[in-house]
Amino acid sequence: MSATVAPAKGLEFLPVLEKKFGEKVTALEGLAADVPTLVTDAASLHEAARFLRDDPAAAYDLFLDLASADLSRLPGPQAPKAGERFQANYILYSTKRNEHLRLKVNLPEKDPSVPTLTDVWPASNWFEREAWDLMGIDFKGHPNQKRLLTHGGFVGHALRKDYDAKQRWLCTEEDLLQTELAAQTDEPADMFETTTLNFGPSQPATHGTLRIVMRLDGETIVGAESECGYLHRCFEKMSEAHTYSQVFPYTDRLNYCSPMLNNNGYARAIESMLGVTPPPRALAVRTILGEFSRVMDHLVCLAANLVDIGGLTSFWYAFQPREEIYGLLEACSGARLTVSYGRVGGLANDVPENFVPWAREIIKGTRERLGDVETLVTRNKIVWNRLRDTGVVTKEQALAWGWTGPCLRASGVPFDLRKDQPYEWYGEVDFDVPIMTEGDNYARYLVRVEEMKQSLRIIEQILDKLPGGPVRSDDYRVILPPKEMVYNEMEALIYHFKLVFEGVKVPPGEIYSATEGANGELGFSVVSDGSGFPYRLKVRPPCFPLFASFEKIIKGHPVADAVATLGLLNIIAGELDR
Amino acid sequence: MAAKVVTLKVPETTFAESIYLVEIAKGLARTFGHFWKNLTNMKGLPTIQYPEMLRKYSARFRGRHILKKREDDTLKCVACYMCETACPAECIHIEAGEHPVLAYEKYPTVFEIDLLRCVYCGYCVDACPKDAIWMTRDYELSFFDRKGAVLGIPELTEKPSDTAAGGPGYGYRPYEGESPMKKAGQFEPSGLPLLPALAERGMAINRMPPPPPPKPPAAAPAAKAG
User: Fold this and answer.
1) Is residue B113 within a helix (H) or strand (E), and if so which, with residue range?
2) Staple partner for A536: which of A418, A473, A527, A576, CB 3.0–4.6 Å?
3) What's the CATH number for A250-473?
4) Coil, helix or strand for A71?
5) Which of B133, B175, B182, B186 to mutate to test the interface with A (most CBs of A within 10 A)?
6) What is the value of pTM for the model shown?
7) What is the ipTM of this complex?
8) pLDDT, tens digit, for every residue of A208-220?
9) What are A130's strand-pairing partners?
10) What is the architecture of the domain spanning B53-187?
């Protein structure tokens, strides 16, 4: 078992980089070899970032994640150098070369600060705010460095290792984060009076606890600021206090519309670190249920959005297949929503006997209901008037804002991890990646509808060749042995006790592992210190950059369009706030 | 880059679509089709009339927990703290005592599950090395106060009412190996296929109160004596 997954590939631009920066930017070999890693210092970070974005041989056009870490408690060779403590890991992706890159900056214990990258990749804005909020890294020159996930009455930075997780901070009315817009009084501007509209956090049309403060001129939004954190429940901090397998129930609650996809993503990250491959049947079932979850997620997104713009009937038709898929998930895992079906090294249990015919029935039913929705909606002129040419995001904007998933594909970038870096069973099946170039709400609708059809295609193909055999790895260092062995064999009982009490021992190292979630790239950055507990776990929620750019999309459009846009971006508060 | 990328096109508006009426008629045809289908086949309606009817869950459903007993009516639990350790929500509290029967060694003097903290993940069942804790399909859990939600040994050893009588039955149980339920003779087809009528597919249990069974007059004193 080793942490090295794939050796750092020869990066073509490295010689140019070395010539330009010399010792300041170096390629890292060794522990972190999951994605190519460059190490730089805070002073040359900005220049290096600009080079990585602009150099045609590098072309890292997509800013994916900023995973900060507090290394102060790491033992042995992983321990930071004297005086150093923090680390900022920028995860970048090049859509041209289909390659990830980690840009690592080591930071001192006192006043850790780096220059902001918001002018290089606008997407880094909220990620930097989050790192400031939770890790206390100062981003020099950041346009709006305020707390994001915690409230104004919060003291300290929660993800630092010396922060006591049992502390509680009371949020009084004065501590509520007041955005600049909300603080403004209603004054006449030009000849019309503008007003402030507080939209959310408990607004039916937000479908989650999101808050947007809008400045309105009549019906038109002239300024907007969005705010999140109302559903923040310290997923990352809690993970550090739980064993690797105990984190599964927490991942269910990230994107609660497609919990199985989160299970898959997390399991894949940990399995890659361990070097364990689950049996083919487990991977096949994961892919099937993951694709069903994707269908569910898209159905919820479309149905809820259609209700928002006034079409209730389609909502009933779209929710019917979702209900049936929940039934199937329940028969497999034991719960409809909080499935917790994934395990490190396989699945919790085999699928029920009638899984294949049942799944086929669901596919048939889903196609029928999807047909109903399409009949009512796709060529409906009212829908067209509401969705077409509203919420338009160009290809360049979408990339700059760090978008992934169906929303990016609706803007014309064919980036889909299932196709570009196949995992599970996606390499074995034939499916298309639908894209559109319009980038408006209607494009997001159509792409989602087509993706559901492709998902059903994937499921059908895997059902045809669903392999037999076990669904759990026989490596009992990572997964609990079957009960029959535990009751009768000493070794199995010892493995069982050690796994429950100490957890899966993941070798020291770090990883960035990404899967295609329902809303885009779901990434897990994990740092392991060799114990049974994750040292640091950072999720890259696909909704996060989507919601961060929402305020920019709706500027200059009526409120009604903002509602339609919000619905089709599909912001899931559980994963946004973690 | 992706091998197969399909660029979707926005469909063109036809004249018939731009005048609304034809499309409205088409849409109404679709909804009235559903209306007629449902009207003529009320049993096939996907709606479950909860509380009168209850959704039938699979034999893996993770509901309220249950402590299992040995044949001699003592608890199987040996108070090893495995479930307490495995619980991600920290909702189990155990205190161990010495069992009067020497062979059983230990037993729990206190075994409490706080159902308000529990996330029903089933990890306690997976962690138990003695097959002592299972889950049931009982999910209608409501309490008058927080204390009522903390279940002790007496509440946890209650058997779930049996499925035939409209009760939930056993749910999640440990992974034993290949197709464990079939092996244990406990496999219940959990299938609720999509299309057949509700009553046929056994998706829901009708909970309307069953007629009271006739009481044999002599039964009560006999039971007391026994």
Assistant:
1) strand B106-114
2) A527
3) 1.10.645.10
4) coil
5) B175
6) 0.87
7) 0.81
8) 888 888 888 888 8
9) none
10) 2-Layer Sandwich (3.30)
